[in-house]
Specification:
By secondary structure, the chain is an alpha+beta fold. Helices cover 30% and strands 27% of the residues. It has 5 helices and 8 strands; from the N terminus they run E-E-H-H-H-E-E-E-H-E-H-E-E. Strand 5, helix 4 and strand 6 form a beta-alpha-beta unit. Helix 1 packs across helix 3. It is globular and about 40 Å long.
């Protein structure tokens, strides 16, 4: 990446998307106790050591410009993170990147995930347009209906069923979003 876009915070209504901080360790551990988050994670967090490593990985990803992970805070609920959104951006010129998210169980059903994903998506297309970014993909297991609903609410249309691919034991879905004016 040539000019790495650095941002400390994104805002969308009551949502604040900010970098993960060392003080978020307990929130992260609590969130990863949820079987739904464990099932959708490529990097499970089972203990404090794994949580510290996860937090370091997010910081290193941001520093390298290849992974932009944001803690999602809903100020209407407090100051602690209630979710995560992430942009995994490949080399400039590839045209596509992947997004992901999770929401802690107590915050589900409030529209937080689609709003956070929309904020990340808008930022990504603006920040990486110069690198040729024209498509964002959201991938999930085929049996994860809530992720289908979040994808649709955030403007990510269903594209295809994917074959199983480690670490995923079942087929998956690919949802895609393009910037305005770039078709579907």
């Amino acid at each position: 990446m040539t000019d790495q876009p650095h941002t400390d915070r994104l805002r969308s209504g009551s949502l604040v998307l900010r970098p993960w901080l060392p003080g978020d360790l307990a929130v992260l551990l609590d969130a990863y106790r949820d079987p739904a988050i464990q099932a959708g994670s490529r990097a499970p967090v089972a203990d404090a050591e794994a949580a510290e490593r996860w937090l370091r990985d997010q910081e290193e990803g941001r520093a390298s410009g290849l992974r932009h992970s944001f803690a999602v805070v809903d100020t209407a609920l407090g100051e602690a993170p209630v979710g995560n959104v992430v942009l995994v951006h490949p080399a400039p010129g590839s045209g596509s990147a992947e997004v992901g998210y999770w929401t802690a169980a107590p915050a589900r059903g409030r529209g937080i995930a689609p709003r956070a994903l929309e904020a990340l998506t808008d930022w990504a297309f603006a920040a990486f347009a110069g690198d040729g970014l024209v498509r964002l993909d959201l991938l999930h297991q085929v049996d994860n209906e809530p992720s289908c609903r979040v994808a649709e609410k955030a403007g990510y249309g269903f594209v295809e069923v994917l074959p199983p691919h480690p670490p995923w034991p079942r087929k998956g879905h690919r949802h895609t979003r393009r910037p305005a004016g770039h078709g579907r």
